[in-house]
Specification:
Layout lengths: L1 H11 L7 H21 L7 H9 L6 H34 L11 H16 L4 H23 L8 H23 L3 H11 L8 H28 L3 H6 L4 H23 L5 H13 L3 H26 L7 H19 L6
Length: 346
C-alpha cells in the first residue's frame, strides 16, 4: 500500500514544485542572456547598434552586423545541442537509476566517436546526415554493450557496475579510435578538432539535419517521464502499476541515444552537460522527471552556450573549444558526486 501511495503521489497527483515558476523564469532569463552574449562576444565584440542591425535589419551591411549574422547559426546550434545533451543525461540517469550516468561517463560518446572515425577512414563520410547516422549507430551499439556488461551477475545492473563497464568500454574504444587514426594522417586532421567538442563549424545545413532527431528525442522523453517516475521506485513496483519496464527502458534509452548521438556527430563528444544540467534541476525542483526533463533541456542549452562564449573570450583572438570548458567544470562535480553520494541508485 505504501508503494502504491508513493507512485500515486509521484506520477498522478504530484503538485508543481514550489520553486518551479521561479526556476522557469530564471532559466529563460539566463537563456536569453546566453543568447545575447553568444551573438555579441567573440574575437570581435559588437556594439548594441550592430547587434540590433544584424538581427533585425537585413539591409544593413556593416561589418559588425555581418559578424552577428555569422554567429546566429552557431548560437542556435549550441542551444539545440545543449538541450539534447541535457535531456539525454536525464533519461540515462532514469533508465539506469544511476545518479552519475551521463553519455560521456557511460562510454556512449566514445562509441559514437569510433563510428565517426571509421566512417571518415573507410567510407569517406562528409555530410551532416552521414555523421549523424554513423554516430547514432555507434552510440546505440555501445549503450547496449555497456548495459549488457553492467547487468551480468546476480545483482543485475547496479550503478557502480554500469559506471565501471562504461569506463572500461570507453578506454577500449578510445584505443581503437587511436589505432584507426594514427596510420591515417588525413583522418587525424579531420578528427582532432571534432574530438575536443567544438561548435565553430555550425551551419544551417547541420541545424536542419539535427532538428528532427532533437524533436523526436524530446517528445519520447516527455512521453515516458511519468512512467520513469514509477520506475524510480523499482521494477517490481512499477510492473505492479502496469508499467512495461522492458519497453519503457528501450524507448527511453532509444531517445537518449539518438539525442546524444546526433549532438555528438555534429559538435564532437562534449561531456558532462547531461550530468551538470540534470543534477542542477534535481537540486532545485526535486526528482519528478515531468519537470526535470524539460528543465534539463533549458539548463543544458544555457550551460553549453555560456561555455562556448567563455571559450571564445578566454582563447581570444582564437578560441578554446566548449568541450574543454565543460570537462573543466564537470570533472570536479563528478568527483564530488562520486565521493559524497557513493554512487547510490536514484
Amino acid at each position: 500500500m505504501r508503494n502504491k501511495k508513493l507512485i500515486k503521489n509521484r506520477t498522478l497527483n504530484a503538485h508543481l514544485p514550489k520553486q518551479f515558476w521561479k526556476v522557469l523564469i530564471l532559466s529563460f532569463v539566463m537563456l536569453l542572456t546566453c543568447i545575447i552574449a553568444s551573438l555579441a562576444f567573440g574575437s570581435r565584440i559588437v556594439t548594441k547598434d550592430e547587434l540590433l542591425a544584424g538581427l533585425f535589419f537585413s539591409d544593413v551591411e556593416s561589418y559588425g552586423a555581418s559578424v552577428v549574422r555569422e554567429r546566429i547559426p552557431r548560437t542556435i546550434f549550441s542551444l539545440f545541442c545543449g538541450a539534447a545533451l541535457g535531456v539525454s543525461g536525464a533519461l540515462m540517469q532514469a533508465v539506469t537509476r544511476n545518479p552519475i550516468a551521463d553519455p560521456s561517463i557511460l562510454g556512449v560518446n566514445t562509441g559514437a566517436a569510433l563510428f565517426v572515425v571509421g566512417g571518415l577512414a573507410f567510407f569517406n563520410i562528409s555530410t551532416a546526415g552521414q555523421y549523424i547516422w554513423f554516430a547514432i549507430t555507434g552510440a546505440m551499439i555501445t549503450a547496449v554493450f555497456v548495459y549488457g556488461i553492467g547487468s551480468m551477475g546476480r545483482s543485475g545492473p547496479t550503478p557502480l557496475k554500469l559506471v565501471l563497464a562504461g569506463a572500461a568500454t570507453s578506454a577500449a574504444l578510445s584505443s581503437l579510435v587511436s589505432a584507426i587514426m594514427l596510420p591515417r594522417s588525413y583522418v587525424m586532421d579531420q578528427f582532432r578538432f571534432w574530438q575536443v567538442g567544438s561548435l565553430g563549424s555550425a551551419n544551417w545545413n547541420g541545424i536542419t539535419t539535427f532538428l528532427p532527431f532533437l524533436i523526436i528525442g524530446v517528445i519520447l522523453a516527455i512521453m515516458t517521464a511519468p512512467a520513469l517516475n514509477a520506475l524510480a521506485l523499482g521494477d517490481e513496483v512499477a510492473t505492479g502499476q502496469g508499467v512495461r519496464t522492458g519497453v519503457l527502458r528501450l524507448v527511453a534509452a532509444f531517445a537518449g541515444v539518438i539525442l546524444c548521438g546526433a549532438a555528438t556527430a555534429l559538435a564532437g563528444p562534449i561531456g558532462f552537460i547531461g550530468l551538470l544540467s540534470t543534477h542542477l534541476m534535481r537540486l532545485l525542483l526535486g526528482p519528478d522527471l515531468r519537470y526535470v526533463i524539460p528543465m534539463s533541456a533549458l539548463s543544458g542549452a544555457a550551460i553549453l552556450t555560456i561555455s562556448d562564449v567563455s571559450g571564445r573570450l578566454i582563447g581570444s583572438p582564437g578560441e578554446l573549444e566548449a568541450g574543454v570548458l565543460t570537462a573543466f567544470l564537470g570533472a570536479p562535480i563528478l568527483i564530488y558526486l562520486a565521493t559524497r553520494m557513493k554512487v547510490r541508485s536514484l
